[in-house]
């Protein structure tokens, strides 16, 4: 971004101020995440940089916290719980959210705005209120403290993300394509899977990613709805902070950050590919 | 206005009505039968109900009242994907995530046609529209005209007997439109398919169709062959909508079987006209005369009367001259004359006499 030659003094001052503000925003967003990465290699049981680490002494660094994460049965149980819960919750969110978005995009559906608002409410209502409500609701159903209880609760939290991203993709969807498909002899199910789904896939994928991360990161609802058997990674991290104060948390956090970056990159590549297929960008 | 040509109509609308909101009728009492192999155009301004009729035939809209028949079978309750009607959409509606070949293969796969037969049919359909080399391209890599050819091939590939076209050439430039108009009519006749074509372009309707149904206000105003529509419009809407037309307001003075005398508003001059849509003396009427049927300074005996006119504008258009005149108090009277060596070029302010044959001057409803 370059200043035009006719910029006034005021514009120049504002230009540089703006750059400083942008830099500060980035710093406050990224610095906390970046500092945990070196700290996770700490050889001591501390949450701070030791003098040895600051002097770049190789002996001050170690992988012991990573070793702890991969050998400690509690951490392992939590990891497997998260791996069992998040993908299933994501699948449910994507399936139901996509269906809802497709249905609500049709103009003949009555009360579509009201229904949409209700479906999106888990995103707006404070999490603690949703969590408390779900606790009482699932208790009545006998699902409190069960695997499916947590999965359904997380799916409900993920659905709004899928609805929003898929609805946004559907705005650009040409309705005459589904008409053309029907005219050529395809029934509604075939039309959905062969014509509509491939074209809204980028939105479905992005929504699925958000739903997955919501479930994988979520700690409040799982505390209410789950029991010891559904202890997820964020829950274990919460316990780790409160009770053990073990830097293993930092190792887990680093792993999660790297996982998130990989996931985002992978999904973005996938999204670009299907957008190319959609004919939006020249192949 | 019933069709007498085909006793067994291939497509028929019987007292069909359509209302979207349950209050106002978009289509009011539509009766229309289309013969097998006929090229019928629904022509009309936007909002006249023509597209709604096409959508009811395709099955995307349901008729509020009445019966729609295809080949003798009532199709009101058959969903669109089971009607087996081909359709070309205004915006082409090609599937962007499929290649041209996959687009054409789609209706064939639905019909569970084997791979080798599919390939033969796809090749034949693409050759019909001269797009044989484009089988592997995606729609985004094609121009508008090419996309419309593919859309046409896709509507024909599964060999439907009835093909609907919803303003298929609306988005193309004039030259491409004329080429495709010719190709569509040629294909339709070669394949013997029945075509229902919707357009708001009257030139397109006149050049392509066997018959044209002129729509306005949810009704068919006139259903006739292109020449009958132009030469003998039955009411003032059709006269105005098809081609260029001059209208003069007046009152019927006397009315015989094939002659009437009309007193023009404004000047009170009296002219002879052919009574088409007037019922009795004293009725208000709009008299319609085509611009190319008006003569300057007519010889006595050629026409039954002459009117005084003043030239307001003279436009040189190459093959024709277009002269705007003030006649009977109106200043939008147009006369078209061929560019002949002896044709006088008028200038604004000139006083002339004009006349026409009484049968070219049609007294219509007001």
Automatic annotation (TrEMBL), chain A:
PROSITE patterns for the chain: ABC_TM1
Cross-referenced CDD domains: TM_PBP2
One term under GO cellular component: plasma membrane
GO biological process, alphabetically ordered: transmembrane transport
Keyword Cytoplasm: no
Coiled coil: none
ABC transmembrane type-1 domain location: 79-267
Bilayer topology: Multi-pass membrane protein
Gene3D superfamilies per record: MetI-like
UniProt keyword annotation of NAD present: no
Keywords, comma-separated and alphabetical: Cell inner membrane, Cell membrane, Membrane, Transmembrane, Transmembrane helix, Transport
Transmembrane region(s): 16-41, 85-104, 116-138, 150-173, 199-225, 245-270
One Pfam entry name: BPD_transp_1
Subcellular localization, as worded in the UniProt entry: Cell inner membrane; Cell membrane
Primary location class: membrane
Family matches, as InterPro entries: MetI-like, MetI-like_sf
UniProt record similarity statement: Belongs to the binding-protein-dependent transport system permease family.
Name of the protein this chain belongs to: Inner membrane ABC transporter permease protein YdcV
Naturally occurring in which organism (per UniProt): Palleronia abyssalis
From TrEMBL, chain B:
Catalytic activity, as annotated: ATP + H2O + polyamine-[polyamine-binding protein]Side 1 = ADP + phosphate + polyamineSide 2 + [polyamine-binding protein]Side 1
PROSITE patterns: ABC_TRANSPORTER_1, ABC_TRANSPORTER_2
GO molecular function terms listed in the Swiss-Prot or TrEMBL record: ABC-type polyamine transporter activity; ATP binding; ATP hydrolysis activity
Record keywords: ATP-binding, Cell membrane, Hydrolase, Membrane, Nucleotide-binding, Translocase, Transport
UniProt cross-references to Pfam families, sorted A to Z: ABC_tran (PF00005), TOBE_2 (PF08402)
Ranges of residues in domain ABC transporter: 11-242
Gene3D superfamilies linked to this entry: 2.40.50.100, P-loop containing nucleotide triphosphate hydrolases
EC numbers for this chain: 7.6.2.11
Cellular component terms per the entry's GO annotation: ATP-binding cassette (ABC) transporter complex
Uppermost EC category: translocase
Task of the protein: Part of the ABC transporter complex PotABCD involved in spermidine/putrescine import. Responsible for energy coupling to the transport system.
Subunit structure: The complex is composed of two ATP-binding proteins (PotA), two transmembrane proteins (PotB and PotC) and a solute-binding protein (PotD).
Family: Belongs to the ABC transporter superfamily. Spermidine/putrescine importer (TC 3.A.1.11.1) family.
Name assigned to this protein: Spermidine/putrescine import ATP-binding protein PotA
Organism from which the protein derives: Palleronia abyssalis
Gene it is expressed from: potA_2
């Amino acid at each position: 971004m370059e200043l035009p030659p006719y910029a006034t003094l005021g514009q120049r001052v504002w230009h540089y101020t703006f750059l400083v503000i942008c830099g500060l925003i980035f710093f406050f967003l990224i610095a906390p995440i970046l500092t945990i990465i070196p700290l996770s290699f700490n050889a001591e049981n501390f949450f701070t940089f030791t003098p040895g680490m600051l002097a770049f002494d190789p002996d001050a660094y170690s992988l012991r916290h990573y070793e702890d994460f991969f050998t400690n049965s509690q951490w392992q149980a939590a990891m497997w719980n998260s791996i069992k819960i998040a993908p299933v919750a994501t699948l449910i969110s994507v399936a139901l959210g996509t269906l809802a978005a497709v249905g609500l995009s049709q103009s003949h559906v009555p009360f579509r705005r009201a229904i949409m608002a209700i479906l999106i409410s888990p995103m707006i209502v404070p999490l603690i209120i949703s969590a408390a409500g779900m606790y009482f609701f699932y208790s009545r159903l006998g699902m409190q403290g069960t695997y499916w209880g947590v999965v359904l609760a997380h799916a409900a939290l993920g659905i709004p993300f899928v609805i929003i991203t898929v609805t946004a993709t559907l705005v650009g969807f040409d309705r005459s394509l589904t008409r053309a498909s029907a005219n050529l002899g395809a029934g509604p199910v075939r039309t959905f899977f062969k014509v509509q789904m491939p074209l809204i896939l980028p939105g479905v994928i992005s929504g699925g990613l958000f739903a997955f991360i919501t479930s994988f990161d979520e700690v409040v609802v799982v505390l209410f709805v789950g029991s010891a058997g559904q202890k997820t990674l964020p829950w274990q991290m919460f316990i780790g902070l409160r009770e053990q104060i073990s830097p293993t948390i930092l190792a887990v956090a680093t792993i999660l950050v790297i996982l998130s970056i990989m996931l985002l990159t992978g999904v973005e590549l996938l999204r670009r590919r299907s957008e190319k297929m959609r004919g939006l960008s020249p192949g | 206005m019933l069709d007498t040509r085909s006793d067994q109509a291939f497509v028929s609308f019987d007292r069909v009505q359509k209302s979207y909101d349950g209050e106002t009728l978009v289509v009011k009492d539509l009766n229309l039968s289309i013969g097998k192999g006929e090229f019928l155009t629904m022509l009309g301004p936007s909002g006249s109900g023509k597209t709604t009729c096409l959508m009811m035939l395709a099955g995307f809209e349901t008729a509020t009242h009445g019966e729609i028949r295809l080949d003798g079978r009532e199709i009101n309750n058959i969903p669109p994907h089971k009607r087996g009607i081909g359709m070309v959409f205004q915006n082409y509606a090609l599937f962007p995530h499929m290649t041209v070949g996959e687009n054409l293969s789609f209706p064939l796969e639905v019909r569970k046609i084997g791979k080798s037969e599919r390939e033969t049919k796809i090749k034949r359909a693409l050759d019909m529209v001269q797009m044989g080399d484009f089988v592997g391209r995606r729609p985004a890599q094609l121009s508008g005209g090419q996309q419309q050819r593919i859309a046409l091939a896709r509507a024909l590939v599964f060999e439907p007997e009835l093909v609907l076209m919803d303003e298929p050439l609306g988005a193309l430039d004039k030259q491409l439109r004329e080429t495709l108009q010719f190709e569509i009519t040629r294909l339709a006749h070669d394949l013997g398919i029945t075509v229902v074509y919707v357009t708001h372009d009257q030139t397109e309707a006149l050049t392509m169709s066997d018959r044209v149904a002129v729509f306005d206000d949810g009704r068919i105003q006139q259903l006739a062959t292109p020449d009958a529509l132009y030469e003998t419009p039955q009411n003032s809407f059709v006269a105005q909508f098809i081609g260029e037309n001059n209208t003069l307001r007046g009152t019927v003075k006397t009315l015989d079987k094939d002659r009437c005398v009309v007193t023009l508003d404004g000047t009170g001059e009296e002219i002879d006209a052919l009574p088409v849509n007037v019922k009795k003396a004293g009725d208000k009427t709009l008299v319609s005369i085509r611009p190319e049927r008006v003569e300057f300074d007519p010889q006595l005996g050629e026409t039954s009367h002459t009117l005084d006119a003043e030239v307001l504008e003279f436009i040189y258009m190459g093959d024709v001259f277009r002269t705007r005149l003030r006649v009977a108090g109106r200043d939008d009277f147009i006369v078209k004359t061929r560019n002949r060596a002896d044709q006088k070029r008028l200038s604004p302010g000139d006083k002339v006499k004009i006349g026409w044959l009484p049968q070219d001057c049609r007294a219509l409803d007001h």
